[in-house]
């Protein structure tokens, strides 16, 4: 049926009315069926969640009861010892406690309090602070009240959950010991709550339900909002009080149900549309056939006339197609050229390079020849893009291509394979000296500056070299080895070339080993935070700390941050590590304050990957500060000079500063700086890099740079701190030129967290001044 017949046919209104009625009836049926099916699926999911909740609550009850029964065993041991010996000796207690606990998890310590004073604790390691605690004179009124209440009872009491002095969430079971009806003391067992929750299966995230636990009115596990959103609740009854467990089917499971129902509804809708369409076809087909028969003869006559005219048009079209074919052949050749050209520099691109490399390998293999591959990477090219913009970066790449092209006089193949990476294939190599000469010529090309924004910029290059077939006969291996050699050239100071050798494989394997170890280091608690005090020069008082991460590998021992931090940034692990450092430092700083130490500001380094999280970073810091209870005024964030200079980061810096967090620029002066950026950045402090401080009394240029920084900071109203101060001469220079603060081994090396309270309490500015004068 042609378009004219379809245009002339008009469907009667009665037909449309019948179709509408059928659609409404069938659509209502489909909707009712799918809605009922959805309700049934939700009911099943909630029933499964209720069964799982009951199972978890029972498991948690059993885990708690098993641990709390240990209190009775410890009391029986003390009663027996007092009855047989009249006293309790430590060796006997430790031997009993070791065998009594065995391999059970979740037990922090067993302790005995004769007269209410802690004298026996197992294990002693990590619990030394418990020895000597008098429960009846404890600073915590809740603990004193528990001790008084337990003393008057013959049954055990439960205290907690609460934050343990040694760190972590725990709970305590305590019983009184009576000798001849008179109170002798207490026995107690401190339990770790997280292992109990894990043993009960609450920590398993693959259950398909979300769980939360509330104890003594406080949520100790899971989302607190769960208790307001779900009807699924269960209780865990203890000797004293009870815990409440709430459950809700996981969002993923509920979303899966909704998706399943939506798919069924969509299928029903499509089936309804198809059914209505078939009914429509059946109702209108007879009428359409009558119209088609009446129009057919007329259409055939018109079509015959059109065919005659079309034949003439086809002859003309054939001539046009021949012309277009010739044009397409030319266009194909042009497109083939474009496919092998880099759009920025006009040089050969990666596709061309890969094909040429394979061709060169085949030719060299057949002629038993050697050839060389040079892998060239510009040093610090990213700084040009970050400071001047990508348009100037592209201009620099064009000039680099023009310079390198001047070297190609003997059939060498030159390509830009991406970013700031270039390759040169030398198709025939007589000897190694020939390749060395070519590589040195490439290095020499970068000794002249590049003119960008009417200013001179020096950009160097690092080169990796591989030889066919000496190093490999495979294209991928030659590229891989050249890449490794190039990175070795960068490690050895850049602006140089390096031939591949077998030692580079060792470095690659070592890097992979460290990368794999890093993935387990965080969950195995292999990291530790050290704190280095920062002093005000004028008063010699400690005004802050810098947090420094350390990694104690279980097999290799200490691994320097300079080794593992770049690898963590490369493989994306720096974000969880940085979050762990930030949370650990905030929690530790608040713990020092709670222990009675004067509040001080602690500085934490932010990596580029963390800072590029934008809004998520601000929310994360807010969450950690709220979680730990630390005042933002006692947190300082250190960022690199490159990050600070990027315009898009100014808004985030201002957001962090609005939280009353101190912002400082780390390693200032070691990169390309612009004072116009510094004067408008929302920062409070700049940090002189140790490389300049080491030059004091040795290198006048370093001293001149430091003087310029101090003068600039004074006029901009910024605090300036020098790191790496190790000698009295360095201190005297900084003091005489009005540097504000210092940090270095002259006063304190980095300290473990448990040493910091002693340093804060024992530090005496008067003694420091006397020692400096002496």
Using brief descriptors, characterize the structure shown.
774 residues, alpha+beta, eight-stranded mixed β-barrel, five-stranded antiparallel sheet, 21% strand, disordered N terminus
What's the arrangement of secondary structure elements?
Elements: H1 3-8, H2 13-85, H3 90-101, E1 107-114, E2 120-122, H4 141-151, E3 157-163, E4 169-179, E5 182-192, H5 193-199, E6 209-215, E7 218-221, H6 226-229, E8 232-237, E9 242-249, H7 251-339, H8 350-367, E10 371-378, H9 381-388, H10 390-405, E11 413-418, E12 421-426, H11 432-445, E13 450-452, E14 455-457, E15 461-468, H12 475-491, E16 497-499, H13 503-521, E17 527-536, E18 542-553, E19 557-559, H14 561-571, H15 574-594, E20 601-605, H16 608-611, H17 615-628, E21 635-640, H18 641-645, H19 650-658, E22 662-668, H20 675-678, E23 685-688, H21 690-693, H22 700-716, E24 719-723, H23 728-736, E25 741-743, E26 751-752, H24 756-762, H25 765-773
Parallel strand pairs: 15-16, 18-20, 20-21, 21-22, 22-23, 23-24, 24-25
Antiparallel strand pairs: 1-2, 1-5, 3-4, 4-5, 6-7, 6-9, 8-9, 10-12, 10-15, 11-12, 13-14, 17-18, 17-25, 17-26, 18-19
């Amino acid at each position: 049926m042609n378009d004219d017949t379809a245009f002339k046919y008009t469907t009667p209104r009665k037909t449309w009315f019948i179709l509408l009625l059928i659609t409404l009836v069938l659509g209502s049926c489909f909707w009712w069926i799918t809605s009922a099916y959805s309700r049934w699926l939700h009911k099943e999911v909630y029933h499964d969640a209720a069964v799982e909740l009951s199972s978890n609550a029972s498991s948690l009850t059993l885990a708690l009861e098993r641990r709390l029964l240990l209190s009775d065993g410890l009391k029986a041991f003390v009663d027996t010892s007092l009855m047989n010996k009249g006293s309790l000796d430590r060796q006997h207690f430790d031997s009993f406690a070791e065998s009594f606990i065995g391999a059970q998890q979740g037990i922090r310590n067993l302790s005995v309090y004769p007269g209410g004073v802690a004298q026996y604790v197992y294990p002693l390691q990590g619990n030394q602070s418990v020895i000597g605690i008098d429960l009846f004179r404890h600073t915590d009124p809740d603990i004193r009240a528990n001790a008084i209440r337990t003393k008057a009872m013959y049954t055990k009491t439960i205290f907690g959950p609460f934050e343990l002095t040694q760190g972590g969430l725990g709970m305590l079971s305590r019983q009184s010991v009576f000798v001849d009806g008179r109170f002798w003391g207490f026995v107690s067992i401190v339990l770790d709550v997280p292992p109990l929750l894990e043993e009960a299966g609450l920590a398993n995230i693959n259950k398909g339900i979300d769980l939360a636990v509330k104890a003594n009115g406080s949520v100790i596990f899971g989302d607190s909002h769960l208790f307001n959103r779900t009807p699924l609740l269960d209780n865990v009854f203890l000797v004293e009080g009870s815990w409440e467990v709430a459950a809700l089917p996981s969002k993923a499971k509920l979303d899966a149900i909704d998706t399943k129902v939506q798919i069924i509804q969509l299928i029903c809708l499509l089936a309804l549309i198809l059914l209505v369409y078939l009914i429509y076809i059946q109702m209108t087909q007879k009428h359409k056939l009558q119209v088609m028969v009446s129009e057919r003869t007329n259409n055939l006559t018109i079509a015959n006339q059109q065919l005659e005219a079309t034949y003439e048009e086809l002859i003309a079209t054939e001539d046009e197609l021949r012309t277009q074919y010739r044009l397409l052949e030319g266009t194909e050749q042009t497109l083939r050229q474009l496919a092998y050209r880099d759009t920025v520099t006009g040089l050969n691109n990666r596709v061309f390079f890969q094909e040429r490399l394979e061709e060169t390998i085949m030719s060299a293999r057949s002629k038993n020849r050697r050839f060389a591959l040079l892998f060239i990477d510009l040093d610090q090219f990213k700084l040009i893009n970050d400071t001047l913009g990508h348009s100037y970066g592209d201009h620099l790449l064009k000039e680099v291509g023009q310079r390198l092209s001047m070297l190609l006089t003997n059939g060498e193949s030159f390509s830009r394979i991406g970013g700031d990476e270039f390759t040169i294939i030398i198709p025939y190599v007589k000897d190694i000296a020939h390749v060395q000469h070519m590589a040195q010529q490439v290095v020499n090309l970068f000794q002249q500056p590049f003119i960008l924004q009417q200013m001179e910029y020096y950009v160097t290059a690092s080169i990796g070299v591989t030889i066919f077939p000496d190093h490999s006969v495979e294209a991928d291996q030659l590229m891989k080895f050249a890449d490794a050699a190039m990175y070795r050239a960068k490690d050895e100071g850049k602006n140089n070339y390096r031939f591949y050798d077998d030692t580079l494989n060792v470095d690659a394997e070592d890097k992979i080993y460290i990368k794999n170890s890093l993935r387990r280091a965080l969950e195995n608690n292999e990291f530790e935070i050290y704190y280095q005090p920062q002093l005000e020069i004028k008063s010699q008082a400690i005004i802050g700390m810098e947090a420094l991460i350390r990694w104690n590998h279980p097999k290799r021992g200490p691994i320097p941050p300079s080794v593992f931090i770049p690898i963590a940034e490369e493989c994306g692990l720096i974000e969880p590590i940085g979050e762990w450092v930030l949370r650990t430092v905030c929690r530790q700083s608040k713990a020092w304050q709670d222990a009675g130490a004067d509040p001080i500001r602690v500085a934490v380094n932010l990596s580029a990957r963390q800072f590029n999280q934008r809004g998520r970073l601000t929310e994360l810091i807010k969450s950690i500060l709220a979680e730990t209870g630390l005042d933002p005024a006692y947190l300082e964030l250190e960022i690199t000079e490159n990050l600070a200079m990027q315009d898009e980061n100014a808004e985030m810096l201002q957001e962090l500063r609005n939280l009353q967090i101190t912002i400082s620029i780390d390693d200032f002066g070691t990169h390309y700086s612009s004072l116009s950026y510094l004067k408008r950045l929302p920062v409070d402090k700049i940090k002189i890099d140790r490389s300049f401080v080491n030059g004091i009394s040795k290198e006048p240029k370093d001293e001149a740079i430091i003087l310029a920084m101090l003068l600039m900071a004074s006029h901009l109203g910024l605090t300036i701190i020098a790191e790496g101060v190790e000698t009295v001469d360095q201190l005297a220079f900084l003091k005489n030129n009005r540097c504000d603060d210092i940090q270095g081994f002259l006063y304190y090396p980095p300290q473990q967290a448990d040493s910091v309270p002693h340093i804060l309490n024992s530090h005496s500015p008067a003694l420091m001044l006397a020692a400096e004068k002496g």
